[in-house]
Amino acid sequence: MDSALPLWFEITSYAVLVAILLFDLFLVVRRPHVPSTRESALWITFYVSLSVVFGLLIIVVANDSGLSGTELGLQFYAGWLTEYSLSADNVFVFLIIMAQFRVPKKMQQELLMMGIVLALIFRAIFIVLGASLLESYSWLFYIFGAYLVYVAVQQLREKDEHGSGEDNFVIAWLKKVLRVHPEWSDNDRWRTMVNGEKFLTPAILVLVSLGTIDLIFALDSIPAIFGITTSPFLVFTCNILALMGLRQLYFLLGDLVDRLHYLGHGIAAILAFIGFKLVNHALHLNELPFINAGQHVEIVPEIPTWLSLVVIVLTLTVAVLASLARTKREESAK
Prior knowledge:
4 strands; 11 helices; mainly alpha
């Protein structure tokens, strides 16, 4: 269901979420540090709780406006879970980028946060374009669906298909045109002095890497969430809330990402399911006319949102439990 929520609710939601994001950014810039496990866990708990409450608000406001609150709420939760699971998988690539550029721990928070802001800007553009195109050309659902199935297969074949960030052509070009020194400065994030000469630190390369990598991630995640809901408001709020806790998730997971052996498999299964759902939705929109009857009949029934949510939750649960079981077996064998 794609009925719009009240305009006042959408504007208020954007204002509150952006205010929280700016406050988080202010804290990072003002007090750069390496967050403890407890601090990261508390922030993630806050963001997850915020997402749950926001979904409940959608249900209440939609019902009061004469819309199907349950349907819109389920669309939000399914979309948010999909985006959050994809974000967790992307942490692995961010770890590689930070390690390759030898980013000091105290600077990682700020760079991650700035990368998240860039990601939200990129995704906002993608979402507006995607919503406009899908509204005008429903056959694009076939292309998006086939693309997600392809991504799912690639996810299974190669864990790190996106590369490390240092290999992309943008970074290679920046290294040629900018004076970037591989060493970091102790008192300046962006500039350093070497033998009396001024150089940029690798911070600019890290920031561009995070931005370009997220552009690639968006090519997977945006079509995936449009497979759950075509409401631009729900798509963008799912992205905001999923990316908000990404910085804390990075520090909380750390080396644990490698222990989630089957997370990539679970995400591949989710992407494949949503790809199938997109194709199914396209078939649902295309009706066959009865001969000489002037009526139309649906080719296939629509897959309900509640079923999508169940599939996503069960897939992630099985992937995590299987990963924990494998880790336990490996530790017992040592």
